[in-house]
Amino acid sequence: MERHDSGRPRGGLALTLRWLFSAVVILHALMVLAQPFLAGGSLDGHAVPLLAHAAVGGTLILVSMVLVVLGVLAWMPGGGSAWAPVMALGLVILEIAQVSLGHLHLLSIHVPLGVVITLLAAGLCLVALRRPRPHSRRTRTTLPARHDVDPVSHPLARPVPTGGPHG
Question: For this UniProt entry, which segments traverse the membrane (predicted)?
Answer without folding.
Answer: 12-38, 50-75, 82-101, 107-129
